[in-house]
Amino acid sequence: MPKGLEYLAVEFKNIDPLTDLIVTVESTIWIESDMEIEFLGHKMFLIPESDKSDPIIRFPLTDIFFSFDFQRESPKIYEAFSIVLRLLSAFTWNYQEPFTCNGLMTILKGMNVSTKSNRIHVKDYFNPKEIVIGNDADSRLALALFREALTSDNIPMKFLSFAKILNVKYKDKQQEDEFNRIVRLLSDKKALNRINQLDELGEDVGEKLYKSGRCAIAHANTAPTIDPDDTSDLYELHLDMPLVKSVAEYIINVELNLQSILLR
Fold first, then answer.
1. For the chain, what is the total number of helices (H) and then of strands (E)?
2. 99 & 165 share domain
């Protein structure tokens, strides 16, 4: 048994490292005591942080999957890990907090997952049993992109992930017009301040977000482009970030009808 799994077997008596998928979580909020939940028809166990470990999601691999085997990369491992990521995306959307975890390759290799980040703060409003989840492909993709954006420290990639949430609902040629439509429906103060700034400059907001933001990040051979080493490009994206984030939230909250607990 790999070293990291030996630690888990000793530290947590109810964990079987050979039959459970073990994922350590990094977030600013978590539960205070052990909790059993059901997510997408699967039973999981949430374990609070300890003196030596970050919080853990324990996902028993039943006959639906297989007996855990670190010697081979079965597609079922990826399927099980995807369900955990869906759960983290649902947490991220509902509580507007980034939830990340140790990577899949770490799990496959059985590496030591007993880390300690000291970031967790128990919040009494965090209830994993009462969350809005995506029940169709578009909703699941939108929540995944939102978590990708919220957990990214890379400004262009954060912007692109938020912008792609609009693309979940609207095709390329529609997006510029849809940006222009939705920004006039927003109420977020930071977003409204940026809209006012762009209006005063005579900028077409939809064109700026789509062509100078989303497309400029995604493409490298057609102007305009975003240079990751050009801080003026990064600063401009930073200024537009509250706006594109608010558009993404509107799409999920209103058009996909997934009302975040904290945005209700």
1. 10, 7
2. no
Any idea what DSSP says for residue 100? Answer: E
Choosing from 122, 148, 168, the residue where a domain stops is: 122
- Strand-pairing partners, residue 75, are none
- In DSSP notation, 70-93 reads TTS--HHHHHHHHHHHHHHHHHHH
Query: In terms of domains, do 10 and 109 share one?
Result: yes
Q: How many residues can be counted in the chain?
A: 264
Residues 20 and 109 in one domain: yes
Sign of CA pseudo-dihedral 170, 237, 86, 128:
negative
Instruction: Encode pLDDT of 120-144 as tens digits.
Output: 566 667 889 889 998 899 999 999 9
Q: Which distant-in-sequence residues (6+ apart) come within 8 Å of 251 by Cβ?
A: 142, 165, 166, 168, 169, 182
Percent of the chain with pLDDT over 70: 79
Largest CA distance in the chain: 64
pLDDT tens string 240-251: 999 999 999 999
**Residue that terminates a domain, selected from 122, 152, 172:** 122
Q: For residue 162, what are the domain limits?
A: 137-255
Report the C-alpha gap between 123 and 136 in whole angstroms.
29
Reported confidence tier of residue 94, pLDDT bands at 50, 70, 90? very high
Same domain, 38 and 100: yes
The whole-model pTM stands at 0.86
Q: What are phi and psi of 129, to 5 degrees?
A: -85, -10
Same domain, 59 and 143: no
In a domain, 130, yes or no: no
